[in-house]
Amino acid sequence: MPAPAILIAGTTSDAGKSMVVAGLCRALARRGISVAPFKAQNMSNNSAVTADGGEIGRAQALQAEACGLAPNTLFNPVLLKPGSDRRSQVVVRGKVSGSISAADYHERRAHLRTVVTDALDELRATFDIVLCEGAGSAAEVNLRDSDIANMGLAESANLPVLIVGDIDRGGVLAHFLGTLAALEAEDQSRVAGFIVNKFRGELSLLKPGLDWVEKSTGRGVLGVIPFLTDLWIDTEDGLGITPGATVGRPRAPEGKRWLDVAAIRLPRLSNSTDVEALAMEPGVRVRWVDSPSEVATADLVVLPGSKSTVSDLEWLRARGIDAGIEEARRAGAVIVGICGGFQMLSRHIDDVVEARGAQGPVPGLDLLPVDIKFAPEKTVRTIDAAGTIFGSEVRVRGYEIHHGQVQRNDAAAFHAIDGRGEGACVGRVFGSHIHGLFANDEWRREFLREAVMPQVPGFCVAADTQVEAERMRQVDVMADAVEAALDLDRIVQMASAAARFGPTLRIDRDAQSTG
């Protein structure tokens, strides 16, 4: 018999499905239950690398860590990485499987159903329970025929479904009712109940609304999870990453001065999580920016990764941000480029992979004497090696995900990995293809001490900031909140059920009734 499994779906994107699954994973793992996460199809440019060199969504990597597991491509068998408004790179079981338009993918998705169900079956044969996360809204009726992530998955694998709604944005009661009513009768029968997420206020005032949901739908609200202000790591789809937004919860500086970090909010931003480790440091304020003036006044400028490097470089120039970077550099700021950002700092970028139709090399920002040429084969690998930075030897862990390859590098290496030069360094300008560098505590401290502190008198680097410990603290916060709000034993029992859970809600033009 396959192990129990349940689908945590949502009324909308960003309802909190990833957080609920991560919290449930951690809470069940703390009870000694063998649990695994699963997201059939994810759309995100925030990805992580598995030990065997595959890619999965970063949220699923965090959920795996919550279970005490290493990231595995089984946890997210289909990953879409948008390169434009119309096309996405398709990653199947961790490997690139072409680029496709939204219309074409709608047709192809039906053929991926076997990939998805096989991966889930393998997990159900290995673990005690599998917690599946839906994608977007459960009621995407226009996509239902080829759906593999929400009710289509529930149908294929005979899964019960819990629907999460975000009350902080308002309208959650109507969202519950409308989501259920939009589903066909067979899909409705799989919906076991609802979960309210991100609640602020007096619970007694919400109680009549919860009673109304149960009376109107025949299904109860299993719990109300409070708004957790302390959660901000490993964001998945970047809905909260808007220009002007501050990363995390800045803590007071240990010295006399704050460090102002401007992270450029690129249109096709990828692996935005690279700056989160910086934001964990006391006295470091990281803000997302998209204007030259905000860049020009920063102490440290970060050009993050991009799923469309040439296109985002054109955008950056069109907004005059290149001039802002140069102004900041001349004023003494430190400039750091990571992956696509590193490529933008180069002399030339020759891209015929992501920049479809591009003809020949385009000029980079020319702040590093490096030439980049894109290769059809993507480099996807983890890094775990001895490295050096500013003459100090440290352990470096991270990962690489990029098509762009360094063809020529006339600069000093940013750092050395097992004796191999990596990245580039000229004065106060640094670039590297490695994601996750700042999450290395020793490496980050050395970088801030040697590259930043001389330029920012009065800023002091804390000696005890531990990024991994902070990440797991936030995972435990999720688990504590979920365990306090929900009956875990009841959810496990639901995961074992294959029965109908409530009446069908019918809609016509003039009336609404249950039957």
Automatic annotation (TrEMBL):
Domain of life of the organism encoding this protein: Bacteria
Residue ranges of domain CobQ/CobB/MinD/ParA nucleotide binding in the record: 6-233
Gene Ontology biological-process annotations: cobalamin biosynthetic process
Active site as annotated: C339, H435
InterPro entries assigned to the protein according to its UniProt record, in alphabetical order: Class_I_gatase-like, CobQ/CobB/MinD/ParA_Nub-bd_dom, CobQ_GATase1, CobQ_N, CobQ_synth, GATase_3, P-loop_NTPase
PANTHER family, per database record: COBYRIC ACID SYNTHASE, DETHIOBIOTIN SYNTHETASE
Protein name: Cobyric acid synthase
